[in-house]
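Lecture notes, continued. The same structure-token format from the folding unit now serves as the input rather than the output. Read the line below as a description of shape only.
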């Protein structure tokens, strides 16, 4: 059956040269697509997790008693919200990357930076989305009644305990709709990692249609459908989580 599937796309390419789904019948090209999907999924997962952590921590620091801590957080938010993510990516990789130490490679001769292009992509995109997540969680925190926080303090909770055990669970429920939108945008933004040669899905698709111009339309179609599916899964998962954690009176 697999041979019949491959043969169908071989014949399709012969009859319609502009629709050459070469990755469906040539193992090497299929391996490139699989590798691209793996990197896209890895980038998406790592950036989503790290950006949420940044948002949670940043929102807590925004209420710090120290004005300098609050100013640093605000400066971070303004910097990452007011500059293009692609420019940030290039700045992290080409500018900051020059100051990171290197280690000797496996061959014993070459110098390999301790943070690879994949690492810089994760760091840059996570900090970009994290800046928006800080404001999202801050809004959620402000929706928690002051009386709830005062009650926790009266019971002997520290500021940190109040945030983690009382405020954050309620604020998270309020923040989920906006967080959903931001994480969807983050997953789509991972395609910008092509700018520093991260071999994610867009990079692999561009490589394929550069090698095989007749595969341009099929690879564009595959790329389009792949992100529809990936983003759709994320949206459905977040929507189910939102419905499961909804509390009457919090977040609609």
């Amino acid at each position: 059956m697999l041979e019949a599937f491959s043969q169908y796309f071989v014949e399709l390419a012969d009859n319609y040269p502009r629709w050459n789904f070469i990755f469906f019948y040539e193992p090497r090209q299929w391996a490139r697509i699989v590798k691209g999907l793996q990197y896209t999924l890895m980038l998406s997962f790592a950036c989503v997790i790290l950006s949420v952590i940044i948002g949670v921590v940043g929102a807590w620091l925004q209420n710090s008693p120290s004005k300098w801590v609050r100013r640093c957080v605000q400066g971070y938010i303004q910097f990452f919200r007011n500059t293009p993510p692609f420019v940030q990516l290039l700045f992290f990789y080409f500018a900051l990357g020059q100051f990171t130490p290197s280690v000797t490679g496996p061959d014993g001769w070459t110098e390999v930076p301790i943070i690879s292009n994949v690492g810089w992509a994760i760091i840059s995109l996570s900090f970009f989305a994290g800046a928006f997540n800080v404001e999202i969680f801050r809004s959620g925190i402000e929706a928690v009644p002051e009386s709830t926080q005062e009650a926790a303090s009266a019971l002997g909770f520290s500021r940190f305990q109040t945030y983690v055990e009382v405020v954050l669970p309620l604020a998270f429920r309020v923040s989920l709709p906006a967080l959903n939108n931001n994480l969807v945008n983050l997953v789509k933004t991972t395609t910008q990692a092509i700018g520093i040669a991260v071999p994610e899905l867009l990079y692999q698709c561009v490589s394929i249609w550069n090698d095989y111009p007749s595969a341009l339309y099929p690879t564009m179609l595959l790329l389009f459908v792949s992100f529809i599916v990936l983003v759709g899964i994320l949206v459905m998962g977040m929507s189910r989580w939102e419905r499961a954690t909804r509390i009457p009176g919090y977040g609609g």
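Point for the exam: The longest helix spans residues 27-61.
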